[in-house]
Structure formats: structure tokens, C-alpha cells
Amino acid sequence: MLIAGGWFWLVAAARSPQRDALRPVAVTHGTIEEVVTAQGKLEAKQYVDVGTQVSGQLKKISVDIGDEVKKGQLVAEIDPRVYQAQVEASEAHLNSLKAQLNQQKAAATLAEQNLKRNQNLIAVNAVSQQALQESESQASVAKAQVDSIAAQIQETESNLKGIRTNLGFTKIYAPMSGTVTTMPAREGQTLNANQTAPTILQVANLDVMTVRAQVAEADVTRLKEGMAAYFTTLGNSERRWQGKVWQIQPAPEIVNDVVLYDVLIDVKNEGHELMTGMTTQVFFIFGKAENATIIPVEALTRRVADQDNEKGKAYRVSVATESGREQRVIHVGLQTRTQAQVVDGLQPGDRILVSRPTDTATAQTNAARPNAPRFNRGPQL
To answer: What is the pTM of this model?
Structure first.
């Protein structure tokens, strides 16, 4: 029984690979960044949806998508005939009221003269008291009619100003200088401005673009206005566009039960290489170290919290030296998911011992020896 048990233990030990083994890894030298990533979309920082304030048929559009326009430039026209007719009708009505006012003023003057005459005659009993009262009433009515027509003239003049303003709104001018980016309306289309102002086109300043990045709630609390950031586009993942965070919007957007916050980043768009709607990969930089001593983050397994200092957090690592293994305390600065910056305790070229699976090391060894035999262990039961 003892012999059989020992034989079984030896066979099992031979078949069971060692899960982890200490492997030497070289300390490297380079640049390390601690970042948070997010997806985003490009949009113009300054843009205006140019609409119409009056209803009617869109008679003419003077620009096309991609055209550069100046502030105050005529870009579209609404058919003005209806509003022109309203102006002419209102002007005619106003002239009629003015003529009526002149006529009524003459009547009021006559009524006032009759009243004065009867007042003089009543003193010598040349007219009756009834005649005097009638002349007083006629003078008051004539004066009231003059005031009424004057009020109508004032109302008509006010309405005429509004109609002339609407006539002016049939010519639509660019409110800012920029590029025509969209044009949802078409010539000949009837636009109804009674409820909402229909958009004819959009003018945007493409010299400065804004990235609207959606950041998860777990990361947004770490971001600050003025923080450095960069992004890449799908069309050119090699070029980094540099910018700074200028706004973190407080209202979240919930997408598939995920809470996201919009973070806005401005970037200069010289040459107009960036376009609205482009998808971006945004990197918010929390820290960056150039010419740094770097080790794999998997080497940081033994924390030495009592030796932390202003340089960073302390860890104990095993260093492979000519005389054997040496225990050394290092301090770590920036740290990502895969790399860590060593502030002191190691130099580029040092070799540290890292616990890695034996299978991985064996696979790497076999990869380095292409002629080495390969063993198929078959299905694991």
C-alpha cells in the first residue's frame, strides 16, 4: 500500500503543472500616462440654426452646403407677395383714417364755433336754452370722434410696423460668419412658423471644434475643468488632438441603465480636418511621466504602507542580482492597469522577479524554439 501510494503521488505531481513561478523581467525606460478613456462625438463649438420667423413658400436659397458665409449675408428668401399686399392694404387704411380725421376736425371746429355763438346769444335771450344744450352736445361728440379716429390711426400705424417687420423677415440673413453645414429645407417648400421656427440651414464656425465625450459616473468625479486631454479619430488613430476640458455638464444621460455625463473639450481645427459628427476616442490625462523607470504592475504584490512617503506608495519587490535574490523597497508614482512608474529603488536594466504562470513561460519558450517538439495533452477529464 505504501509503495502504491507513493507511486500515485509521483504520477500526480508529474501531471500537475506548477501554476506560478518567479520569472525575471527587465525594468524598462519610457513614458507612462495615467488616463481615463471615453467615447465622444465632434461638433462645432459655435453654430446657429437659421430659421424663418414668418410662414410662406421658400422662394430662394442663395447658398449651398459647404459654402462660407459672412455675417449679414442674404442666404434665403420667403415669397413676400402676401406680406407686401398686407402692407399696401394697411397703408391705404391708414390714409383713409387720416382723411377722416381731417374731416372730423373740421366738423369739430364748426361745432365749437356754433357753441360759442349760442353762448353769446343766450345772454340776450336770442336763442333758447335747448338750442344751447344741443350745440354743447354736438361739440362734445365732434371732439370725441376726433379722439377716436386718432386712436385708430395709432393702432393702424402700430399694425403697419408689424406687417412691415414681417415683410422684412421674408429676407433671411446669416446671423454669424461660418460654414453652411446642414440644409434641411428646400426651395419651393412651404414653411409654417406659427408654432415653431422652421430651420432652413445651419451655419457653424469650424475653426474651433468641441468634443462631447460621455464619461461614466465612476470616472467623472475625477475630472476637473482645465484638465489636459487628447483624442483620436477613427480615420486617423495615430494623430493626437490636444485640448482641455472646459465644461462638465451636471445633467446625466442614461443609456441602457448606464449613467453618463457629457464632458466638453475644445480644440483648434486649423485646416478644417475635423468634421462634425466624427467619432472620437478621448483620453483624460491625470498624470504623465516621460523618461520614467517602468515595471509591470503585476510585480506590485507586497505592499509596505508604513514606508510610504511624498514620492509615492511603497512596495517590496524581489530583484535578481549576480549574487542571487535581493529584497528591495521601491516607491511607485503613476500607475495604470498594466504599468507602474518607479520613483526610486530600481534602475532601467535591473531584473525583477515576477510571479507568472508556468504554462505561459513554457509557451514563450516553445515559441522561441520553433523546432521544439509540441505535446498534445488531449482533453482534460
So the answer is: 0.65
Quick check: is 380 in a domain?
no
Contacts of 87 (CB under 8 A, 6+ apart): 160, 163, 164, 167
Q: Residue 359 has what pLDDT?
A: 54
Say if residue 304 is in the same domain as residue 327.
Answer: yes
Give the pLDDT band of residue 44 (cuts 50, 70, 90): very high
Does position 17 have pLDDT exceeding 60, yes or no? no
Q: Which of 288, 318, 337 is the last residue of a domain?
A: 288
* Parent domain of 24: 18-30+290-363
Q: Under a CB-based contact definition with an 8 Å cutoff, are residues 264 and 249 in contact?
A: yes
Domain harbouring 240, CATH code: 2.40.30.170
Domain annotation covers residue 162? yes
Burial status of residue 88 (CB atoms within 10 A of its CB: 0-12, 13-18, 19 or more): exposed
How many whole angstroms separate alpha carbon 241 and alpha carbon 209? Answer: 11
Instruction: Give dist(CA 349, CA 102) in Å, integer.
Output: 106
For the chain, how many structural domains are there in total? 3
**Rounded distance, CA 116 to CA 227, Å?**
88
**Distance, CA of 130 to chain centre:** 82
CB atoms within 10 A of CB 236: 10
Q: Based on the domain organization, do 279 and 294 belong to the same domain?
A: no
Task: Determine, yes or no, domain membership for 243.
Answer: yes
Task: In whole angstroms, give the CA distance from residue 79 to residue 85.
Answer: 12
Q: Give the pairing type, strands 28-51 and 199-216.
A: antiparallel
Average pLDDT value over all residues in the chain: 86
Question: What confidence tens digit (pLDDT) does each residue in 336-365 have?
Answer: 888 999 999 999 999 998 887 765 444 444
User: How far is it, in rounded angstroms, from Cα 40 to Cα 264?
Assistant: 9
- Domain identity same for 295 and 321: yes
* CA gap 139, 103 in Å, rounded: 14
- Cα 315 from Cα 213, distance rounded (Å): 36
Q: Judge contact between 245 and 219, C-beta under 8 A.
A: no
Assign residue 339 the CATH number of its domain: 2.40.420.20
Let me know if residue 193 belongs to a domain.
Answer: no
How many residues appear in the chain?
A: 381
* Distance (Å, whole) CA 325 – CA 230: 42
Beta strand spans in 164-310 (E): 171-173, 178-182, 190-191, 199-216, 228-233, 236-255, 258-268, 279-296, 302-303
